[in-house]
Design a protein that fits this description.
Blueprint lengths: L2 H14 L5 H20 L2 H4 L4 H14 L3 H12 L8 E3 L10 E6 L2 E6 L11 H11 L4 E5 L7 H19 L8 E7 L7 E7 L13 E6 L8 H7 L3 E6 L10 E5 L5 E5 L1 E4 L11 E3 L1 H13 L32 H18 L10 H14 L3 H13 L7 E3 L1 H7 L6 E6 L2 E7 L11 E5 L2 E2 H8 L8 H12 L7 E7 L5 E7 L18 E3 L4 E5 L8 H7 L5 E5 L8 H4 L9 E8 L17 E7 L10 E6 L6 H13 L2 E4 L9 E6 L3 E6 L2 E4 L14 E2 L4 H5 L4 H12 L2
Parallel strand pairs: 3-4, 4-7, 7-8, 8-12, 21-22, 22-25, 25-26, 26-30
Antiparallel strand pairs: 1-10, 2-3, 5-6, 5-11, 9-10, 13-28, 14-15, 16-17, 16-18, 18-19, 20-21, 23-24, 23-29, 27-28
Helix pairs in contact: 1-4, 2-4, 2-10, 2-11, 4-5, 4-10, 6-7, 10-11, 10-12, 11-12, 14-15
């Protein structure tokens, strides 16, 4: 995009103002849905040079200025015209009158069927229409279909093409017509490497008993929509195309319908039709002026012999679509690009977020709620914070956001200690080395001079969480963040009730979910009564065999999963069962073949990974096992819990895990903002979810401030008690 274009957008934004009206916000949400749906599924955008981002930002001022549904529809049409596709456009509200939308006339033994101009809704051929047309076609030896259309008649052109396709397959070809293929874009993630093209065979067509071969001529212009079987019939020499004017003959396909407002809709192409050899619709037999089109069509209709055919292949599909532009230089983007950020987030969530059915707020409502803040953002920090609030509203512990602006605001480093919310207090539960002034069990009253409760509430809008306890844990860790090597001023109270200052240097830049590694003591050890203990938060992959050998003769093992695992569950869990290839659960990824709509049999087919524990040739541990869990166990930790439970019925002691299973999807926003959220849905074998719930304990127990101050691990103590007493 040129600097002059950006300048025009800035001026437009200033003239329109930043604040969005309610109806304006609704229209922007709809625009974003149309834009993103086309971005993913319109085939042209996979290989054309269309700058779809620029097409969007250039039309946003017109959408924001719209005061009526018609003005809104006009602005959306302006966006769609960038695609130069007659099958994609805005459809006006359907007329209540039954006005005839086609015309039939006969010249000698040639029947001419014409799409009447002036229709901008989507007519559907009734059985009465088909019967009338069938009677007209019976005596004809040739048929001319006049498909010429105008840009605003996309729906009428598509409806006319559907009617013609039906007439051709039942009455105009004596032999069965093999079905062509639909070439559709297939997506399983927003990442470019997950995009591909999918070929789907259209059902073959059987003629009616009274059908006979009739010579077929199609008159088209650049806005025409040919019937799909024309691709096959051209190749067989049974149909020819007369093309009026300049431009390219559109390849037929299927469309999806998206709603705007007040009866206005969008027809969006979702596929291209190709023949078995990969060719699309062929070259016209002639290119003519408007005055000569019908005359030449009638000449070809009466001329004997096959039509000459020149195959035309659709544009080649690149190996990988281009990545999304990060617009890194736009730390504070113009309003149009701030809206583009909202549309990217909401589009990715709509199509690829693993758990849309578990969210309290629909994606459209999420977008609607946060567009005003993005538009009102008066500077780079406000913009980045508005984006952070939007991501946090996803309510997913996998959801995160990162940018240099947010890093500078919140900081990237933390002190070597862990806070947890216990008995309605922010309590230090783990302390790293070289912190002599802080002890486990200390209550943090102030952080850098700010009351802890006030800091929590200030940060809450920017931190996502699948469950309340998971979100609180994440907030507490963010509350400690600041610049690398900076001093954190804590005000704490110990067991004696004395309030004291405790300056701590921020050194650790480890991710929040790895903070639990501040635990001390031996990673693998033997407790009382012959019970083994393993800290899975610190056990390395290379030490798995050594761990099992050390604990071989124990009666039971307690696996501490109050954190994030370093060793693979697929090396640990198979050692706990005598069975091989044990089914565990399902990883489900949303896989879109196309959008639902006319001419589309399916919209998506989930990609399901049926997970099983791999076999192992190593010796198996047959003692009882317990796993300690709490809100620090997230993602792979929760997956480990399910693998252990499936392997040998491992029991869980503690409190619920974070409730965020599955991998990530990644999104990039203007200003070089990166966003992540859950991309895989993870379920138990019986269909239950982990997301939003977590792995629940069989034996609930939570630490107390008194217990922490006394140096006791009450969760571990309860696990040992359970193993010894059986209850």
């Amino acid at each position: 995009m040129t600097l002059s274009t950006i300048g025009r957008l800035l001026v437009a934004g200033l003239l329109l103002g930043a604040v969005a009206r309610a109806d304006e916000t609704d229209r922007l949400v709809t625009l974003g849905d149309v834009w993103y749906s086309a971005k993913l599924f319109h085939p042209y955008l996979a290989y054309s040079q269309t700058d779809w981002d620029t097409a969007l930002v250039q039309v946003i001022p017109a959408v924001r200025a719209a005061r009526t549904p018609g003005e809104h529809a006009s602005a959306v049409q302006q966006l769609l015209e960038t695609l130069h596709d007659p099958m994609t456009g805005v459809v006006h509200p359907a007329s209540s009158s039954r006005e005839e939308w086609y015309q039939v006339r006969t010249e000698s033994d040639v029947v001419i069927i014409t799409l009447k101009p002036g229709h901008n809704d989507a007519p559907t051929a009734s059985e009465q229409d088909i019967a009338v047309l069938s009677r007209s076609l019976m005596p004809a030896r040739a048929v001319v279909f006049d498909l010429r259309s105008r840009p605003e008649e996309a729906a009428a052109a598509f409806g006319f093409a559907n009617m013609i396709e039906r007439l051709i397959r039942t009455l105009c070809v004596a032999a069965p017509i093999p079905g062509p293929y639909l070439r559709e874009r297939a997506r399983s993630n927003i990442a470019p490497e997950t995009a591909d093209f999918h070929l789907r065979r259209v059902y073959g067509q059987q003629p009616a008993p009274e059908a006979k071969d009739r010579r077929l001529v199609l008159i088209c212009n650049r806005y025409s929509v040919p019937p799909r079987n024309a691709v096959v019939l051209q190749r067989k020499g049974q149909a020819g195309v007369i093309f009026e004017g300049e431009g390219v003959l559109a390849v037929p396909g299927s469309v999806s319908v998206l709603n705007l407002e007040a009866g206005y809709r969008v027809y969006l192409r979702t596929s291209e039709t190709i023949d078995a050899d990969g060719s699309g619709i062929g070259e016209p037999v002639a290119r003519v002026t408007a005055e000569d089109a019908m005359r030449l069509a009638l000449e070809y209709a009466r001329k004997p012999g096959e039509f000459p055919f020149t195959a035309k292949r659709p544009p080649a599909v690149p190996d990988l679509p281009l990545s999304e532009e990060a617009y890194a230089s736009m730390r504070y983007p113009p309003a149009e690009y701030r809206l583009l950020a909202a549309f990217r987030v909401c589009g990715a969530l709509k199509y690829f977020f693993a758990y849309p059915h578990l969210q309290e707020r629909r994606v459209g409502d999420l977008c609607r709620a946060h567009i005003p803040a993005l538009l009102n953002a008066s500077g780079e920090l406000e913009y980045h914070l508005a984006a952070a609030r939007m991501v946090a509203d996803v309510n997913d512990s996998h959801a995160s956001i990162q940018s240099t602006v947010l890093d500078a605001h919140f900081g990237t480093a933390r002190p070597p200690l862990v806070l947890q919310w216990i008995e309605d207090e922010a309590v230090v539960t783990q302390v790293g080395d070289n912190l002599p002034g802080i002890r486990p069990g200390d209550v943090v009253l102030r952080i850098d001079g700010e009351e802890t409760t006030a800091r929590i509430e200030r940060l809450r809008p920017y931190v996502a969480g699948s469950t309340p306890h998971s979100r609180m844990y994440r907030i507490l860790q963010v509350a400690l963040m600041g610049a690398q090597n900076s001093l954190l001023d804590l005000e704490i109270a110990g067991a004696d009730g004395v309030v004291r200052k405790a300056p701590v240097q921020r050194l650790s830049t480890r991710p929040i979910f790895l903070q639990a590694a501040e635990r001390r003591g031996e990673v693998v050890r033997i407790l009382e009564d012959g019970i083994g203990y393993v800290d899975l938060d610190r056990l390395q992959q290379s030490d798995v065999d050594t761990m099992f050998d050390k604990l071989r003769d124990t009666r039971a093992i307690v696996f501490d999963m109050r954190g994030f695992p370093q060793a693979s569950q697929f090396d640990l869990a198979p050692r706990l069962t005598d069975r091989d290839e044990v089914p565990v659960g399902f990883l489900i990824r949303r896989f879109w073949h196309s959008l639902p709509g006319m001419g589309t049999e399916r919209e998506r087919g989930d990609y399901v990974i049926d997970q099983v524990l791999p076999s192992t040739d190593k010796w198996r541990y047959r003692g009882k096992t317990i796993m300690l869990i709490d809100e620090r166990a997230i993602s792979a930790a929760e997956h480990s819990a399910l693998c252990f439970s499936t392997a040998n019925g491992t029991r869980f002691v503690g409190s619920a895990t974070a409730g965020a299973g599955g991998g990530w999807i990644g999104i990039v926003l203007p200003g070089a903002i990166t966003v992540r959220s859950s991309g895989y849905e993870y379920r138990y074998r019986d269909g239950r979810y982990v997301e939003g719930i977590g792995v629940l304990p069989d034996v609930p127990v939570s630490p107390t401030i008194a217990g922490i101050r006394a140096g006791r691990d009450e969760v571990l103590d309860r696990a040992v008690q359970y193993l010894v007493s059986g209850k």
